[in-house]
Amino acid sequence: MAISLLLLVISYFLKEKAWLSGALVSISCGGITGLTLYFLSNIRNNKIAKIRKEYDSLYTMNDILNKIIGFGHYHKLYRKMWGEKRNIIEDAYKVLCLIDELDEAKKDMPYSLYTALGFRDNDPLDYDNIRSLKTGYESAIDDENKMKIWLKEVVEYLIPFADKIHDPLNERKDQIMFLGKYFF
User: Fold this and answer.
1) Is the pLDDT of residue 156 over 50?
2) Is the pLDDT of residue 147 over 90?
3) For residue 88, with 0-12 CB atoms within 10 Å meaning exposed, 13-18 middle and 19 or more buried, which class applies?
4) Which residue ranges make up each domain of the chain?
5) What is the DSSP string of 98-126?
6) DSSP string, 20-56
7) CA trace torsion 108, 71, 136, 143 (10° rounding)
8) Mind telling me which residue stretches traverse the membrane in this protein (predicted)?
């Protein structure tokens, strides 16, 4: 940048030699244009990296939520229809592990996304809510009927959260596809 400005100043003092002054202005403007394009591309790449990080975080959370809701729907609907005997105690333990993964995924979420989703005011996955879900599991650990009720409560609690992150997930996906298609 300093070199470009120096070339512009030198070209001002060499007004008598038009070809030399024009060449210096052209070189300096090329440098300024190149520098401008470099900064614009850097801004674009930073934006893409930010959107990709948000998308990865939302995708991970959505995947975990879909698994938890899938366990709940299986024990609510499909088990009655198909008559399969999967152990609800084992499935509930898997759901408990998925809740831990969901908590870790929330901790990895960028703060800008966290506030954009409105979790700063009302966080469905804060420490107290996660602890209450785990306490419900611990109180129903040996009783199959209580475990069904706990699993149903977990699914009902997490469905609004899953709905809330679905639209931002698709928005980030569309932004990545648009920026990747038209700017790479």
Assistant:
1) yes
2) no
3) buried
4) 51-183
5) HHHHHHHHHHTS-HHHHHHTTTTTS-TTS
6) HHHHHHHHHHHHHHHHHHHHHHHHHHHHHHHHHHHHH
7) -150
8) 23-43
What sign does the CA torsion over 77, 133, 141, 104 have? positive
Q: Which tens digits make up the pLDDT trace of 100-116?
A: 999 898 888 888 888 88
Q: Select from 96, 178, 177 the least CA-distant residue to 140.
A: 96
Query: If we measure between CA atoms, which residue out of 18, 108, 10, 99 comes closest to residue 59?
Result: 108
Output the pTM of the full model.
Answer: 0.72
Can you spell out the DSSP letters for 135-179? HHHHHTTT-HHHHHHHHHHHHHHHHHHHHHHHHHHHHHHHHHHHH
**Which of 32-36, 129-133, 171-175 is predicted least confidently?**
32-36
Helix H or strand E segment including 134: helix 127-139
| Phi and psi, residue 130, nearest 5° | -65, -40
Q: Which amino acid is at 58?
A: L
Both tokens assigned to 102: 């969901």
Confidence grade of residue 34 (pLDDT, cut at 50, 70, 90): low
Are the C-beta atoms of 30 and 3 separated by less than 8 Å? no
Cα dihedral 138/142/146/148 (nearest 10): 100
